[in-house]
Amino acid sequence: MSIQLPDLFGILLAVLLLMAAWTDIKTRTISNELNAAIALLAVAFWWVAGEALWPDVALRIGVALLLFAAFAALFMLKMMGGGDVKMIAALALWLPFPALMAMLTVMALAGGVITLFLLVRQRWRPNAARPEVPYGVAIAIGGLWVIANGLLTTSVA
What is the spatial distance between Cα 112 and Cα 146, in angstroms, rounded to a whole number? Predict the structure, then answer.
């Protein structure tokens, strides 16, 4: 079994997602530089994977912008961090629409589990401050799930 160039991009994306999850756990922030690396690497991935500028790349950019706007509304409501919003949009640049829907579903489920865990943990620590959910972890889990299931380079029916 040989590793193809698009697979190497998937491995690099996985490393960046793990870095984002780790920094979100440790500092509750995801740096702009890390999100920019995820977004800019998508451009190189499109070229290597032979993505058509129209409509494939144009649709990915459009969907990423729509997701950014939708999650920015959650940021304005203080329900999500700015780094999380940028990370979702950057990751969306990588994914065909069906894979994006799978990623968002896994992300939402993982985010719910993480939130429940933190709420239960807080219940046992009555003097603890209201927990901040490191949602970058949930985003990374969604992205890693897509990569692990081969959906990054394959269309999903």
Answer: 18
Three-state secondary structure call for residue 80 = coil
Q: Is 88 strand, coil or helix?
A: helix
Q: Is 71 exposed, middle or buried (0-12, 13-18, 19+ CB in 10 A)?
A: buried
pTM of the model: 0.91
**pLDDT band per the 50, 70, 90 thresholds, residue 82:** very high
Q: Give the DSSP letter string of 10-79.
A: HHHHHHHHHHHHHHHHHHS---HHHHHHHHHHHHHHHHHHT--IIIIIHHHHHHHHHHHHHHHHHHHTTS
